[in-house]
Amino acid sequence: LTQDDLKKIAAYKAVEFVESGMVLGLGTGSTAKHAIDRIGELLSQKKLTNIIGIPTSTQTHEQALGLGIPLSDLDTHPVLDLAIDGADEVDPDMNLVKGRGGSLLREKMIEGCCKKFVVIVDESKLVDYIGGSGLALPVEIVPFCWKFTAMKLESMFMEAGCVAKLRVENGNGKAYVTDNGNYIVDLYLKKDIGDLRAAGDAILRLAGVVEHGMFIDMATTLIVAGELGVTVRNK
Ligand code: DER
User: What does the record list as coiled-coil region(s) (predicted)?
Assistant: First the structure.
């Protein structure tokens, strides 16, 4: 099974939680894409009806539009029944790293308003601690004096061997700009930062920071697809 096969298996399993009439948070990324495709398919087969989708990115908005999924937003639906989204890392307490696809702010806004937040991953996303993959922990910041903010973030996690890098567009070296017109600084950690809430609060206290990619205690259900099968775990 390829990694994408596993993502699809986890995604389809999550869609089993979708019931007609639900208001859904539609995630962003290659795993969530499969779930949205599946929802579109069930709608076209009339196996699902009266679904409203709240997209977490312009990318997901476009995909859902193309599938004919009726769309809305948080202004109209401030409480959602269910959100389905992927993650970049999942620790043993179901805390997440998200945002390597650039959509962490809208994801966190929308997934914070759901009665149920189902996270779908292939087994490669499981880590012992947040940052443990050695890959990016994204932080969305305002473009104004981004170097200053990046430097403050890097020094904040000096003990964890943190390196902060401005995310650039593939190829042309220009700063990546989020759907919200902001920049992303990716933090690369060499050690466990310990108390995630304290770390997250410290990050948010920097005036130039908009939001960070740690989703602490937000997931209610974790679906993991691996070589040995798919597991569903509730918080
Ligand atoms: O960037 C994001 O937040 C994505 O949801 C990410 O966390 C998972 O993306 P993937 O399903 O393509 O690995």
Answer: none
Q: How many CA atoms lie within 13 A of 234 on its CB side?
A: 2
Q: How many CB atoms lie within 10 A of CB 84?
A: 30
- Give the residue whose CA is nearest to atom 9 of ligand 1: 29
Tokens 């599946």 correspond to 38
Reported as half-sphere exposure (CB side, CA atoms, 13 A), residue 60 has a value of 35
Going from the Cα of 145 to the center of ligand 1, the distance in angstroms, rounded, reads 27
33-42 pLDDT, tens per residue? 999 999 999 9
Question: Is residue 195 within 8 Å of 92, Cβ to Cβ?
Answer: no
Widest pairwise Cα distance in the chain: 55
| Residues framing ligand 1 (Cβ under 6 A) | 27-32, 85-88, 98-101, 103-104, 107
Closest CA to 14 of 66, 78, 63, 87: 87
39 near 52, Cβ under 8 Å? Answer: no
Residue 113 DSSP class: T
Residue 23 · residue 52 · CB < 8 Å:
yes
ipTM higher than the 0.85 cut: yes
Residues involved in catalysis: 107
3 state SS of 92:
coil
The structure tokens listed for 85 are: 């989204």
Encoded tokens for 162: 């943190």
Query: What DSSP element (H or E) covers 83?
Result: strand 80-85
Whole-model pTM?
0.97
Tell me the two tokens of residue 39.
Answer: 């929802």
Strand arrangement, sheet containing 183-188? 163-166, 183-188, 137-141, 209-212
